[in-house]
Amino acid sequence: MRTKMRILGFNAEAVKPMNEGAAAELGAELLGEAIIFVTACSCLMLEYRRHQAQQRRKETERRASWDAMRDEVGHLALALEALQAQVQAAPSQGALEELRAQLQEVRVQLCARSPQPEPQATPVSEE
Questions:
Q1: Mean pLDDT of all residues belonging to the chain
Q2: pTM for this one?
Q3: N or C: which end of the chain has fewer CB within 10 A?
């Protein structure tokens, strides 16, 4: 009874002695409540640890997926650089058109310098 009074915040000095049956009943009640309290606290602690482990696992998975995405972006960047190098190494469409125009001009100039052969008359045979 003194312990119960102290827990509740009362002065425990002025408590009358209890008979043995009431003291046993009060002790059993106190012990039962203590067991329930300890069990509830243990369940809360286990749940908290389980939750923390789950959070750590999720964080690890998140980091792994982030690293995988970063690696994939790196590979894509390398592939893009390779494609850009190929595009720069290949002649552009404008350059090809310019070369064709120059070739056409050279052909025109060559045709203008060389006299065109006159067509030969073919003898017509009379039969």
A1: 83
A2: 0.47
A3: C
